[in-house]
User: What shape does this take?
Amino acid sequence: MKVTPTVFVALLCVHQLVLGQVLTMSACATNCTVQLTSRFTSCSGIQCFCDDHKLAQLGFDCFEENCTVREALVGRNITSLTCQFPNRDRGAVSSAVTFTSLAIALGFVITRAIVFGISKIWGWDDIATGLATIVMIGNAVCNPISRRFGYGKDIWRIPFSDTNEVLKVFFIGGVFYTIGVALIKIAFLCFYLKLFPSRAFRKVAYPLLGICFVYGIVFTFLFIFQCSPVSYTWMQWDGEADGKCLNFDLGAVIHAIINIFVTLVSILRLYSMVQLDGSMNQTWDFIPFGYFTDLEFNVGIACICMPSIRVVLRRYFPNCGLATTEGSSMIGPSNQQAPRLVKISGKNLSRSTNHRATADTSSDRVELYPYNRAQEVT
Ligand SMILES: *[C@@H]1O[C@H](CO)[C@@H](O)[C@H](O)[C@H]1NC(C)=O
Ligand SMILES: *[C@@H]1O[C@H](CO)[C@@H](O)[C@H](O)[C@H]1NC(C)=O
Ligand SMILES: *[C@@H]1O[C@H](CO)[C@@H](O)[C@H](O)[C@H]1NC(C)=O
Ligand SMILES: *[C@@H]1O[C@H](CO)[C@@H](O)[C@H](O)[C@H]1NC(C)=O
Ligand SMILES: *[C@@H]1O[C@H](CO)[C@@H](O)[C@H](O)[C@H]1NC(C)=O
Assistant: This one.
């Protein structure tokens, strides 16, 4: 087919009337369509893209390479609307992950509050955990808000202003996340300090506490002020706003590398973040990054509350095996289990656990029990 000016003008008039708002194919996207369809098919117009997904992908690549970001997105949107391509949305997955892990973490926090509230041994770890919980809820609330603007859908399917909103809410969630991760580390250290009052431990823990504190503040500020002006953080996607940014990827990678020492989930988060590099499709591609972030956050909160769960188990489910404890009243010949022989490199070792599982309501103290001490048989 020869590309006549008439065909070009006809194609330029392709637009979609959506809710009273007209989307018009840009000249540049029209140029791509005309060139590709005349090169590869005998038909003309956007309709040619509907049945030939390879050709459609060539068209989208041409939009992306030769047009502005906004023109490319509108071109792709019109094509998707014309061809009735499915309007995908995987926001539900992210909400499921965020809210399930939030519910579990909140369960842990409430248990902890009840258990330690009764025994009235409040400390800095509880304050840090409480603050982290508030921040965690703030972070989770960002999920349904951003989904209302189209988080989880393809970026070309949502209005430009909504893309800005999604990225803005994502940014706010990121601030919560950065603060929360630091608070969880501080909560852990404060908790360990309560648990191990030894001087040697304190010598290590207090400097670490200082580092976590400074690190939390520094990364929060780095995150907030990564771009100048701050709004450029969520405006830069279309390449039409003016501003400058720090290399966020580098900052985020450093942040995650530090975090890797703390949680495995951070590794998954880092992985999903590396996949994001240079994404053109933020509202869709951010989903795994988003839910690994929330998962890491909630797993951290749940972990810090773990010891209180043990107190509950010991009190109400003394025989479940996790709940046993050592106490002077519990060592007696009548309850001693027969030592179990374990063969290790030719030597006979006897392994015994000289304790009995009983419901223990006398104390909700959290203590460590030297489990599986091996004694050499002589
Ligand atoms: C369309 O493509 C031709 C050939 O590459 C180019 O000369 C022309 O400027 C393009 N028109 C528009 C509106 O982009
Ligand atoms: C961009 O436009 C030029 C000329 O219009 C064309 O040759 C090229 O194939 C286009 N890019 C893509 C990815 O199609
Ligand atoms: C895509 O089309 C939808 C209508 O289905 C419209 O609301 C949205 O603003 C359009 N987005 C872009 C980027 O053109
Ligand atoms: C957006 O994500 C989808 C799904 O992974 C992918 O097929 C598409 O190529 C992406 N689009 C852009 C513009 O990167
Ligand atoms: C280890 O125990 C087995 C069986 O109780 C016994 O026959 C063997 O002699 C013991 N070995 C040593 C090195 O004590």
Q: What stands out?
A: Strands lie at 15-18, 21-24, 227-228, 244-245, 340-344, 347-351, 374-376. The two ends are 96 Å apart (CA to CA). Residues 341, 348 surround 2-acetamido-2-deoxy-beta-D-glucopyranose (ligand 5) (CB under 6 Å).
